[in-house]
Amino acid sequence: MKELLKNLNKAFENRIRLGIMSALVVNDYLDFNALKNLLGVTDGNLASHLKSLEKSDYIRVQKEFLDRKPNTKYSASDEGKLAFIRHIKAIEQLLK
Amino acid sequence: MLLISSQKLFFPLNNEYSNFSSIFTLNYKVLFMNQQKYIEDLKNIKEMMNKSSKFISLSGLSGISAGIIALIGAYFAWITIYSKTGYQDFNRTLLNNDQLIELLTIGIVTLLLALGFGLFFTRLKTKKLKQKVWDSQTKTLLINLLIPLLSGGIFCLLLLIKGYIGLIAPLTLLFYGLALVNASKYTISEIRSLGMLEILLGLTATYFIGYGLIFWCIGFGLLHIIYGIIMEIKYKS
């Protein structure tokens, strides 16, 4: 049992972080507002969770300007995708 | 769990054992709670993946309305084509220019009405699901739908100009089917099998050339209504 629990990723224990990763692995990229609409969370809440995922190098952030307005695009890094798949596999193992 | 409680019964006074069993129970309790959480997690992951990458607000009602409009359109087309020819010449007709223009008008009006109603019902559903009609999912869906559909549409118009009228009904079905299969990755899964059926119908209609209008009624009318009802039942929430 301990072995199984070890494979679970602490970064994905949180519902919102899990949601962000789920959305990012099936899309090339999503911007801040798209993520906000998807998850139905406040700006501050989303920003802090994005920051923590960024710190673990699971997501990549790309800032640019659209019609002179700042626009931030988020995408899952290879490392993040791998960690996410490992996390799902661990859950599936655990539920077996 | 039963075993643990029986242990407790057998060794009620033995501190060491009762301690051991309570830790054991606790461990199991935590694991069980976690299991519930992870089942929920998996459900959430799946939902988020679908919601973020697919257009799921397609309304069954838009399918039903499109089917009914197609049938009405086909009825008018039938009147235009066969009103002046006898019943026996059903599958061998020549069209004059006036009839062609009339048919084109019927086609365009049918298409616009079907699209309009489709958009209306889809709008209602996106409001219910609190999603936007126009976002990146809709864009990818439309682009992938329109590439085969527009090329097919232009191809059919060229055939019409060149006078190959008999092939138009089968080919519209065929291209529509291909467009649906191509776009199905970006929306609910039922669209894929609908596309396959339209392709099959288009090919069959090419073989039974001259009965295009009947196949057209099945493909655009009947199938849309059936799939609309299925979707309406399955995704009603």
From TrEMBL, chain A:
Question: What name does UniProt use for this protein?
Answer: Transcriptional regulator
Q: Where is the Winged helix DNA-binding domain?
A: 16-95
User: Which InterPro entries does the record cross-reference, listed alphabetically?
Assistant: WH-like_DNA-bd_sf, WH_DNA-bd_dom, WH_DNA-bd_sf
Q: SUPFAM superfamilies from the xrefs?
A: Winged helix' DNA-binding domain
Q: Which Pfam families match?
A: HTH_34
